[in-house]
């Protein structure tokens, strides 16, 4: 009984702010196109999908998140394998180093990142955001993948090499299938830190290439169409919901401090 | 036991290269800027430790530091115990706990700049779902300092509780049932089970939760700023708000010095934490 009440209170606490947004997203809050204020329907969603800059923002966000996930996992896999399978001079120092980068506040680095990336021509492009988000996502990806690789018996490596597999073919044909859930979990945690991030996303998109977060910010003005803002917000939740659903059975693996 | 092989460093090279470009280089640059007065990028003058001295001696800095530390302490002391309690509650539901986990993870995928907007909408005295009741009860987040604090803390808890729950649940669900059965046979109290069986299993997850939550709450910016712009009367003026003002005011040298100080502070806390964890691991 107490447990059910606790769960109910939790659900209420989490869903209330979202309920408000979902409700508002179906209501016309700014009279336009002959629609009266207070009319209910899908008008806000239609308006969001009809706006070219908002559509472009969704594409930009999708591009940088996918790039970031691919980059993080491709770079984290060999590192995680090394940490899980070998001991070497400075292994603990490496773990401490990635922890330091994970906890470096983005605001601290925003200024030099902007200067460096404008020299490299990476401002206003999703590639720049994808790169810089590796700062906090790569450590997380390494921690998660390392724990999954550690859980795979070493015999898998040994039989594969005895069977004559090269390093690359072992990685793709044996290791990756064995830790596929780990890749999913790593992708999930990278996603939740990257899709919603605003500090780097703002500083790196001055005039173009704005992701969803910045496109929503740009919708605020003298007369803000709150219904449309909320419709855009609700749409921006969909990829996250998809990710949660995909990894639901492996979410419970989490990650732990390695230092 | 893992074999010793220093060639493993070759596998770390891509990661080191990437972190070098997006982490180490900018970090060195920001430290370097902190010792200069920067008018434009081509007009830069060495000023030594002047900025650092100015910042450390200003009362505003110390007041903001105090507020940020208090905010972090409150956020951690609410979110960590609450998250563990929710995780314990969910473990009791067995397979169905997955729905609870998904529910808790929901706020994690909301864009950070929209989280304060959602909460401002919710507590709006005219149109919010709970706003009119709160207003009737005398809740005034705009002009009463502790109400603003309560709102920001509630919002931050809403946002990050899921991370604590998911990571704590991960540790708890890995405990073999035999442990709990043995404890039940011994007649162990609920607290004894938590202290001696459950807590050791989630300590690794809690360590990372404590660190991540400390840094993120200590450096809270967009969310706190959107709620009340540091007000009322500077009551929610956290460390990052000052940094933001200096960057907006093109005072780059001073901003860089301040950023360096913040980084050193975070580094010191993380370092102390890691040393403490290693020591307890060795004695355990």
From TrEMBL, chain A:
Which PROSITE patterns does this one have? ABC_TM1 (PS50928)
Q: How does it sit in the membrane?
A: Multi-pass membrane protein
| InterPro entries per UniProt | BP-dep_ABC_trans_perm (IPR050901), MetI-like (IPR000515), MetI-like_sf (IPR035906)
Regions annotated as coiled coil: none
What sequence ranges are listed for the domain ABC transmembrane type-1?
58-247
Where the protein is mainly located, per its record?
membrane
Q: Where in the cell is it found?
A: Cell membrane
Q: Decide whether keyword NADP is in the record.
A: no
Q: Which UniProt keywords apply?
A: Cell membrane, Membrane, Transmembrane, Transmembrane helix, Transport
TM ranges: 62-83, 95-117, 129-149, 170-194, 229-247
One Pfam family name is BPD_transp_1
Q: Per the similarity annotation, which family is this?
A: Belongs to the binding-protein-dependent transport system permease family.
Name used for this protein in its record: Carbohydrate ABC transporter permease
UniProtKB/TrEMBL annotation, chain B:
Leader peptide range in chain numbering: none
Record has Disulfide bond as a keyword: no
The answer to keyword Transmembrane applying to this record is yes
Report domain ABC transmembrane type-1 positions.
65-273
Q: Which UniProt keywords apply?
A: Membrane, Transmembrane, Transmembrane helix, Transport
Q: Which InterPro entries match?
A: MetI-like, MetI-like_sf, Sugar_ABC_transporter
PROSITE patterns annotated for this entry? ABC_TM1 (PS50928)
Q: Domain of life, per the record?
A: Bacteria
Q: How does it sit in the membrane?
A: Multi-pass membrane protein
Localization per Swiss-Prot or TrEMBL: Cell membrane
Query: TM segments?
Result: 69-91, 98-122, 158-179, 199-222, 259-277
Which residue spans adopt a coiled-coil conformation according to this UniProt entry?
none
The record's similarity note reads: Belongs to the binding-protein-dependent transport system permease family.
PANTHER family, sorted: GLUCOSE IMPORT SYSTEM PERMEASE PROTEIN GLCT, TREHALOSE TRANSPORT SYSTEM PERMEASE PROTEIN SUGA
What is the protein name for this chain?
Sugar ABC transporter permease
To which species is this protein native? Paragemmobacter amnigenus
Higher taxonomy: Bacteria, Pseudomonadati, Pseudomonadota, Alphaproteobacteria, Rhodobacterales
